[in-house]
Amino acid sequence: MSNTPESQKPGSGTTRIVAGETAPKPKRRRTVEIALAVGLVLLIGAGAAVASAVSQNNQAAPAPTTSPAAELKLGYFSNVTHGPALVGTSKGLIAKELGDTKLSTQVFNAGPAA
User: Fold this and answer.
1) Is residue 41 in some structural domain?
2) Does residue 106 share a domain with residue 76?
3) What letter would DSSP give residue 109?
4) Which terminus of the chain has a smaller tally of CB atoms within 10 A, N or C?
């Protein structure tokens, strides 16, 4: 008796490969894939529920009432890295936006001086 694929019994632990056919997926691998898909769906659902609860809590909080600050102290370097402060103070844009709040500026020439 020869040991050829034709002579082996089904379920003998060998796999017969035929051109053009794909091998069936093992049941265990398919179960793992389904479990991962279900877990991913549950994780997305839980994330959506948490995000929804957080956004509802943020909307419920009333805005605190505060009075405007008496003074704003603005310190900056006199170089291009702090261009918005240079332009805003020289043209009066920052003081205009502050309204009644007093603007005090201080220019620093180096990091350790700040």
Assistant:
1) yes
2) yes
3) S
4) N
What is the rounded CA–CA span in Å between residue 52 and residue 109? 48
Q: Look-up: residue for tokens 């069936």? A: 24
* pLDDT tens string 83-94: 999 999 999 999
Backbone angles phi, psi at 64, to 5 degrees: -70, 145
Task: Report residue 53 as tokens.
Answer: 């609860």
What domain range is 31 assigned to?
Answer: 25-61
If asked whether residues 82 and 109 sit together in one domain, one would say: yes
What is the pTM for the complete model shown? 0.40
pLDDT in tens, 50-108: 888 777 666 656 667 788 788 999 999 988 889 999 999 999 999 999 988 999 999 99
- List % helix, strand, coil for the chain (3-state, nearest 5): 45, 10, 40
